[in-house]
Amino acid sequence: MSGNQEENARLELDFRKLEAVAATGAGVIPVVVQDAETGEVLTLAYANEKALRETMARRVAVFWSTSRDELWVKGATSGDVLELVDVRVNCEQNSLLYRVRRTTGGACHTRGADGAARPTCYYRRIVSADGELSFIHP
Fold this sequence. Notes:
The chain is built from two helices and eight strands, in the order H-E-E-H-E-E-E-E-E-E. The protein is of the alpha+beta class. The protein has a domain at about 25-105: Phosphoribosyl-AMP cyclohydrolase (Ubiquitin-like (UB roll)), CATH 3.10.20.810. The protein has a four-stranded mixed sheet, covered by helices on one side. A two-stranded antiparallel ribbon has the order 3-4.
């Protein structure tokens, strides 16, 4: 990988991410984050028991940062808070769905060309079999 996965126009999928998370021994499950009004998927993150408790208590999205190995209160530094509408659990109870309202319009930690937080982390689409990407939210 080039190390610039966030802004390049080439597909460089990290197929080893879950292996790296598992190697830390962190007890986490995936959390899909969805805009409660539009249904748009905003991001995929992870939660441990503490993050889920904090989410329920604060009524904002709180995750476990697998890269920093710490609690991550979304918006604490960026201001892009995701207010909690509800939390849903899947049938096997091994993933969560946080339905949220964006307070600023931004949800991603990356910034677009205008300097504003992107509204979703899914801001590129795969346009060719050889891995070319195009930006949906530049």
